[in-house]
Amino acid sequence: MKWKQNTADSTAQGQKDDGKKRRDRKETDSSAGIEKRESASEAAQKGELSGKKPTMEDSLPRREIVENAVRIAWPSTLESFLVSLVGVVDTIMVGSLGHTAIAAVGLCTQPKFIGLAVFLSANVAVSAIVARRRGEQDPQRANRVLSQMIVLTLAMTAVISAVFVAFADPILQMAGSAPDTHEDAVGYFRIIMGGMVFNTLSLVINAAQRGAGNTKITMRTNLTSNLINVIFNYLLIGGNLGFPALGVRGAAIATVIGSIAGCGLSIASVMGRDSFVSLKEYGFSFRFDKDTMRAVADIGSSALVEQVFLRIGFLMYAMIVARLGTLEFAAHQVGMNIMSVSFSFGDGLSVAAVALVGRSLGEGRKNLAKTYGRTCQQLGLGFASILSVIFLTCSRPIFQLFSDEEEILVYSMMIMCTMSVSVFLQISQVVYMGCLRGAGDTKYTALISLISVAIVRPGLGWLLCYPLGLGLTGAWIGLASDQFVRFVMAWTRFRRGKWVDRVI
To answer: pTM of the entire structure?
Structure first.
């Protein structure tokens, strides 16, 4: 196998070398493409003999660091961007039914993510552990994590899906549905939660692939899934080419059909042999072992706490905005869809940070992990600058893509101006949080979410919306304040550098 051959070549070279630094370009497995220049043990020995830690510049040239970061980041960033763009298109298509349809679908977002919280947190652990095993060149243990998490994912999905479908009505009432949105929201929610198994299974496999640096695979999977989603949106929402016009429910069915396609591609991606993540090569283990589950529980439990704080905070915030009225919530939902595009750039770079940081730490190269984090952050600031200009200059035309109702367009300038500033904080904190998660420092990221999302965003949002009477403007000031707190806390933790000392 290709990746094994690279490891053997590296070992043979290490035996022949008399201690000189090697500049042997070797490409690892096809997805990652990171050149490994010297073994972790030799790097550690050099640090001990010299009496100081090797700097990043001593480990890799700056150009190589940027190239490696871009090589991993561009597929994940493009994937995240196009997925969010498809979400925008999805909302635009639903928007053709009116602002009540936009609000109905938007009401389902946070309850859906509450149902996915346990899976998202487990997948943080999967990505971090697989990335660390990739650096250690230990595919057996990496695939053991994946196979055991697939079993757990299927079992948990059966329970969670049944509960959320059965209690969809009270869940959506609690989320703030109004009489004009409740029926559509419940119908949409039951369909997507009933078919969530295809989504959760795809998520866990893609998490392992991202941890191994196989971002092109996950990009193809998600792009295919979302393209199919858009096609069936066109067919089922308005009833085109002879298909029935199902409205909001048609959008939900299209989402499930896209998830089925994505799930099939994800499963196919681990059935090959010439890959670090390969269940066909290393086998599917139904037997749980303590070491694997301990590592997953250590990272995943903290990530789950973080997800709980995130979802509770986001849900409370959505309920606060929903109380302002259906029009205000529809305008807010348009803004959140646009904001998801800017988030996608930070999310894509965060995926790259998890893979690069985890792998570097697995190789014993702590300073390299820090440098990769800074490099991803610098790339993020470049994206933020471009997006800020677009938000400022094209606020109303962008909103008009979703709705031409003047009652919604009146909020466009306020929302887009807020985003033009907060986008810098948003992308920066997402990248820094990715670095911390890649190192397994999920307890601290959970603390950040508790303070910023579960307390600052809903607390300040409520205070500004109602007692101070700022309405939707107050809600968005609360959102920007949350981004600021997350940025400061994540940046402080990253700068101190203790996160690189965690052992997984």
So the answer is: 0.70
